[in-house]
Amino acid sequence: MEQAQALISAASGHRRAGSNGNATVRPYRLLAYIVLLLTTGIRPEEARALRWDLLDLEAGTISVWRSDRAGGDTKTPKSRRTLKLPQIALIALRQRKIIQNEERLRAGESWQDSNLVFTTAIGTMLDQHNIRREFRQITKAAGLGTDWVPRELRHTFVSIMSDGGVLAEEIARVAVHKQTSTTELIYRHELRPVIVTGAEVMDKIFR
After folding, report:
1. How far apart are CA 206 and CA 35, in angstroms?
2. SS3 for 138?
3. Residue 128 — very low, low, confident or very high, per pLDDT cuts 50/70/90?
């Protein structure tokens, strides 16, 4: 829990030199990406392929229908799902949209309209190696070292959900695990046997 909060805090701002020479605090490019993986449990390849038309920022939902895999399909047919977004993820994604619009204006004719949520400064898909490089900068700033990779946020999601009182069966359904044994033996690092929903748990924890 403390590590997750430290990670979000570190991703929320770092000092950058402005055009006028003054330093300003800006969020890392991966802030919304990290918040989304951490609070919904979606896979990194699903986040990389996420398009704006699969997000409903008014209703607060995300449709996980694509993946950065061969053919663009999700890992399994059952991996196609629509999830309610926790407020912290919704806020981060709205901020991401504003930042991307600013990048589009700066890029001008160089902008490539991919309709992707997570992009480079010219609108192309983020490369997973570039993501890992910046992710390590953030984990270092959070005091977590540099050995973490984005996929481990899925483990964190399962552990936080379990600590928040969600049953293994419900966590397995949200994380799209075929069996609860996958959730219990591989992903979950704590067990608290009660009942609550995913978005509600995350809203409570990150309020």
Report:
1. 10
2. helix
3. confident
The active-site residue, picked from 28, 96, 187, 188, is: 187
Our answer to whether residue 75 is catalytic in this structure is: yes
Is residue 187 annotated as a catalytic residue, yes or no?
Answer: yes
Q: Quick one: DSSP state of residue 72?
A: G
Rounded CA gap, 177 and 78, in Å? 9
Whether residue 28 lies in the annotated active site: no
What does the pLDDT average to over 181-188?
52
Percent of the chain residues topping a pLDDT of 70 = 77
CB of 126 closer than 8 Å to CB of 118: yes
Among the listed residues 51, 75, 106, 189, the single catalytic one is 75
What are the Cα distances from residue 150, in Å, to 47, 134, 155, 207?
11, 10, 10, 23
